[in-house]
Amino acid sequence: MLSKQIPLGIYEKALPAGECWLERLQLAKTLGFDFVEMSVDETDERLSRLDWSREQRLALVNAIVETGVRVPSMCLSAHRRFPLGSEDDAVRAQGLEIMRKAIQFAQDVGIRVIQLAGYDVYYQEANNETRRRFRDGLKESVE
């Protein structure tokens, strides 16, 4: 470790898959990390976290308290599949709903930073309209 004055974290995907959050945070602590960044990517498994029950959210909070390992940030890359800049209104609406749920989830479990990718669309060709829709989606998300 460099110094305990500088907190050191690890990205969730760098840890073994399949562990519950208590085990994941215990492992991070054993490895000397101070925090873990959560991933909410485009897979159904990770997207489903945004629909966790109150009890599931509390289990994460309790794991944080028990281990002392924080989860201060979320990498929200689900917008690759549901881009805010999509020209398909239904896909864009799903992207906005994902953003709404991510903000609520973050508030519930104490995540302070939601990291977004800065691309308007990922699997299709970008254009002026997709860029405009992306900017508008960001504005809608923070209102």
From TrEMBL:
Domain of life: Bacteria
EC number: 5.1.3.22
Example of a GO MF term: L-ribulose-5-phosphate 3-epimerase activity
GO biological process per UniProt: L-ascorbic acid metabolic process
InterPro entries the record matches: Sugar_Epim/Isomerase, Xyl_isomerase-like_sf, Xyl_isomerase-like_TIM-brl
Gene3D superfamilies, sorted: Divalent-metal-dependent TIM barrel enzymes
Keywords from the UniProt entry: Isomerase
Chain ranges of the Xylose isomerase-like TIM barrel domain: 25-141
Enzyme class: isomerase
Coiled coil: none
Protein name, as recorded: L-ribulose-5-phosphate 3-epimerase
